[in-house]
Design goal:
single chain, 210 residues, alpha/beta, DHBP synthase, six-stranded mixed beta sheet, five-stranded mixed beta sheet, 6 helices, 28% helix
Length: 210
Amino acid sequence: MVRILSVRDPLAISVADKIVRKGLPLVYPTDTIYGLGGDAMSPELVERIYKLKKRPPFMPLSVMLASVQEFDKFSDLSESARRLIAAFLPGALTIILPLEADSPLKHIANADGMAGFRIPSNSFCLDLCARAERPIITSSVNYSGQPPLTRISDMTAQFGDLISIYVKDDKLENSKSLGSTIIRLLNNEIEFLREGAIPKSTILDFMRNN
């Protein structure tokens, strides 16, 4: 049976936390578009997300964190990375960074040992990460290569009860919002993989002036 809860429902956050802890997938609202995710520390959940999205295994997934301080648990940050994180997060920026050699997130990395990180400017996301006490996979709700779905009704029609819970936010329904801007940062060099809610020019101007 498909289960939908409003983000305004006082039970939504505790139910979502239980779903994450059980290693099951869920849909949740972010500061840009809806996200599909679950416990990033669980290789089984990660494999399930890949299958749900029909996503090629060479494409890394991203995770959301509860705070800036958590970055150091997973990546040896360069000075450029620290400046970008301080300036734009929480916010609509995903930064793909090299993981530490012994990172517990190696199962989400690409062949270069890199993975994406994000801190959404969204209280539900931040609360969920803090309650679950672990990073949470954050990916658009769609089949890989197709546009993100923006209505819960379309998501349930496509994925049904393969996703354990859908947390609905009326403000995101049929939203025209862009996803997060995605950059790859290695050796202080920035590569833009997707221009989203934060314009490329804004990031480049910041890097030139800071």
